[in-house]
């Protein structure tokens, strides 16, 4: 019975990590420092030949404060990173991507469920499957 429960837990953990990617969505910059008030977006399904990521792009505009854009982005197959494009009279000073939910916020440590599960599952498995 314990082996069945452990197998169920492992399958459930894998199902949780298969959800669509969710990113902060602030094309003109998020307002304030309270991230709970920032808008989010589910990035949706991706084509087989691309990868969905969260983007954080810092743009410098002469005579204005820097703008930090956050959104979902797509990296085409064969590319190693997302390529930010500058609009006229704008200069990208930072173009960073990540692939965890809501990871495109500034300067925060995010909890990775996958990293946590990769530590806990072997411990649970050793308790149930090793005699």
Brief overview, please?
The chain is an alpha+beta fold.
Itemize the secondary structure elements and their pairings.
Layout: H1 2-16, E1 22-24, E2 40-42, E3 50-60, E4 67-76, E5 91-98, H2 113-129
Antiparallel strand pairs: 1-2, 3-4, 3-5
Helix pairs in contact: 1-2
Helices and strands: which structural class?
Answer: alpha+beta
End-to-end Cα distance: 15 Å
Q: Helical residue percent?
A: 10-25%
- Biggest pleated-sheet summary: 3 strands, antiparallel
Provide the spatial order of strands within the biggest beta sheet.
Answer: 4-3-5
Strand content: 25-35%
Principal-axes shape call: elongated
Task: Round the Cα radius of gyration to an integer and report it.
Answer: 19 Å
Count the DSSP helices: 2
Would you tell me the overall average pLDDT?
80
DSSP E strands, number: 5
- Low-confidence parts lasting 5 or more residues at pLDDT below 50? 4-18
N to C succession of SSEs: HEEEEEH
Membrane topology: Lipid-anchor; GPI-anchor
InterPro entries: QVR-like (IPR031424), Sleep_regulator (IPR050975), Snake_toxin-like_sf (IPR045860)
Keywords: Glycoprotein, GPI-anchor, Lipoprotein, Membrane, Signal, Transmembrane, Transmembrane helix
Subcellular location: Membrane
Key terms for this structure?
single chain, 131 residues, alpha+beta, three-stranded antiparallel sheet, two-stranded antiparallel sheet, 2 helices, 5 strands, elongated
What does this molecule look like?
By secondary structure, the chain is of the alpha+beta class. Helices cover 24% and strands 27% of the residues. The strands form 2 sheets. A 3-stranded antiparallel sheet has the order 4-3-5, with no helix packed on it. It has a two-stranded antiparallel ribbon with strand order 1-2. Helix 1 runs antiparallel to helix 2 (113-129). The relative contact order is 0.20.
